[in-house]
Structure formats: C-alpha cells, structure tokens
Amino acid sequence: MTSSKPRTTQTMKPATAAKKLGVYLGATPAEFQEGVVSRDELNALQAEPPQWLADLRRNGPHPRPVVADKLGVSVSGLVRNGLTEPLTTDEIDAIKAENPRWLQVERDTQAEVRKENVRIKEKHAADAARRAAKGA
To answer: What are the C-alpha distances in Å from 60 to residues 17, 55, 67?
Structure first.
C-alpha cells in the first residue's frame, strides 16, 4: 500500500524570484519584496509579466548579471572597474556610447574566455569520443 502525500506548493524567497526574473529586488513593489513567491506565481509572472515587471526589464535598474550581459562583460569585470550598483538602461546605453577603454579591455577578455571555453568543450568531446571508440 502506498499513501500519496498531499502535494506541497514550492515557494521561494523574493530575492530568488527576482533573480530568476532578471530584475533588481530593490526596485520591485513592496508586496513582492515582503511575501514569498510560489512556483506557479513565478511561472505566471514569466508568462504574462505585469506592467511593473515589464517596465523593470525594459528600463531597470538592472542587477549586475543583467548589466554585465548588456555590456558584454563579466560581473567580475564590472566590479574591477567600480560598477557595483544596479544601472538603468539609459546608464548602460551611455556607457556603451562612451565606449571607455576599460569596457573594450573587458569585452576582449570576455571574448577570450568564451573562446577558451569552446576549445575546452571541444577537447572534452574529442576525448570522450576517443574513449568510446577504444571501448567499442
């Protein structure tokens, strides 16, 4: 005999939900920050974002991972250059337009890291194929 347990609703802290939504928690409405978010609520927010969420995604302020992505650099690159606070889309666009030397250097660094990651992934795939061929 198996007894089926009642299904519990998965919930998460607002910080986790904000991270999954790609928004800065401090800019979300108070009711979002003060409550818990269920998995179903998160899915609903992702499927049909309310106006506040659409505005945050469009205008910011954006959390560091989003800022880094929009600038084409790593989060570490932001920190190395003193950008530790959330930025708005306008601020990000201004940095892009200015194209400071640090941004160029960090973009080059990020491109090298990506190339190296591809090289390592290809090497691992080739090694796995060789091992599989040996074992066959």
So the answer is: 16, 7, 9
Residue 80 and residue 102: Cα distance in Å, rounded? 9
Domain ranges (residues) in the chain: 10-59, 61-136
Residue 22: CB atoms within 10 A of its CB come to 15
Burial of 132 (0-12, 13-18, 19+ CB in 10 A): exposed
Mean pLDDT of the chain: 91
Structure confidence by residue, pLDDT tens digits, 61-118 = 999 999 999 999 999 999 999 999 999 999 999 999 999 999 999 999 999 999 999 9
Question: What pLDDT sits at residue 5?
Answer: 63
Extract the tokens encoding 62: 């954006």
- 40 pLDDT higher than 70: yes
SS3 87: strand
Neighbours of 32 (CB within 10 A): 20
CA count, 13 A, side-chain hemisphere, 100: 11
3-state secondary structure of 33: helix
